[in-house]
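Researcher: Please predict.
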Amino acid sequence: MLLYLSDYLSQFHSGFGVFQYLTLRAILGVVTALGIALIVGPSMIRHLSFRQIGQVVRDDGPESHLSKSGTPTMGGSLILVAIAVSTLLWADLSSRYIWVALLVTLLFGVIGFVDDYIKLVRQDPKGLLSRYKYFWQSVVGIGAAVFLYQTANVTAETQLIVPFFKDVIIPLGGWYMVLTYLVIVGSSNAVNLTDGLDGLAIMPTVMVAAALGLFSYVTGHFEFARYLSIPYIPGAGELTVFCAAMVGSGLGFLWFNTYPAQVFMGDIGALALGAALGTVAVLVRQELVLLIMGGVFVIETLSVVLQVGSYKLRGKRVFLMAPIHHHYELKGWPEPRIIVRFWIITVFLVLVGLASLKIR
């Protein structure tokens, strides 16, 4: 929105042309989203507390979580507002990539809102039934996949890039839609499963979003893409602003979500942020790199799959409790230790993912 205004004003004063630079708009995207989160956060927390929209703690969970009961949740709405406002202000709104990323994020946020509303306002601990949740996730995921496949302008948009191998690029054809659906829905649920401790999900999300922002920038820049031997996708660089908004909003939310948390994001935030990461990874053709950088999310998801599968097949559990962060809690690890160690693991994995840009 402000991009168009600056373009108009630049005919009166050349200084306004500086806002055409993607890097500056990305920085402003971070600052704007961070500012919104920090300013709106306290009043939102007070509102949630007044409405008694508080966390419901499972009886079979770690005893240390009993003290979290009643902590305001649905704080993910703060993240979504900050992302949406910052993106609309600083991104090029003629970009279909921006609209796809933003709409998928917000629609998954709606699904999460309904789930949270049923749990917290209607006091139904089951929330939105799994089959309905996955149905609507699938509707949005498939819709995005079909739209992107039908509107692809260059061959690179529907190819699978294998990291660390320069010449291994796999044409997907119609399978592109299947992969896109799996990445978006899978990433959404993976982040949701990780969101179980104060700050555990949001900081890895911020780090992965920052890395995807860098991937977006170089993928949409012809010279950088050629130098790094990655496919050039015109317009993909605009997603840098969207990723920057994710970083800013995530850091702003972490201000209130750090241990001991004043607010939880709820499904409205976790489902939306996971879908956002998956969508950006698909748009910049870095699905496999997302799998690496989001390794914490992958491990959390696999721990649940292994736990459920083992119990159904053998009648035995692999972990004391799943997802795996609860396993370490029950082993006696303090919550901050688990959180920080998972953050450190994410830092390492993000660096490995970024290394794929040069090691090819």
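Model: The CA atoms of residues 97 and 283 lie 7 Å apart.
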